[in-house]
Amino acid sequence: FASMRDELKAFVDRRMNAVLRRRVDSSDIVQETHVEALRQIDEHRQIPDMPVRAWLIKTARHQLINAYRAHVTAERRSLD
Predict the structure, then answer these.
(1) How crowded is residue 74: how many other Cβ atoms within 10 Å of its Cβ?
(2) Contact 1/53 with Cβ under 8 angstroms?
(3) Which of its termini does the chain have fewer beta carbons within 10 Å around, N or C?
(4) Taking a C-beta distance cutoff of 8 angstroms, is the pair 4, 53 a contact?
């Protein structure tokens, strides 16, 4: 995972919008990606055709979407 850190950070940096960037650092998304990947490592091993790089990028994309929903979309739904 460590060898992909810089690539994942660049991936997340390119896709974060300004609103989310004010609330979350891209390094946080990468760290959450690594945690989620560790939780799902056994599931990934069940799919031998998926390269680790593609799997980590897919996981980072999901973590970015989750962060957007938690920090940006939820703020828009606020009753305040």
Answers:
(1) 10
(2) no
(3) C
(4) yes
- Listing DSSP states for the chain in one string gives -GGGHHHHHHHHHHH--HHHHHH--HHHHHHHHHHHHHHTHHHHHT-TTS-HHHHHHHHHHHHHHHHHIIIIIHHHT---
Contact partners, residue 67, CB within 8 Å, separation at least 6? 20, 24, 28, 29, 32
How do residues 47-68 score in pLDDT, each as one tens digit? 878 899 999 999 999 999 999 9
Cα–Cα–Cα angle for 73, 59, 21, rounded to 5 degrees: 40
pTM comes to 0.84
Q: Are the CB atoms for 28 and 70 separated by under 8 Å?
A: no
Output the six-digit token pair for 73. 């979309």
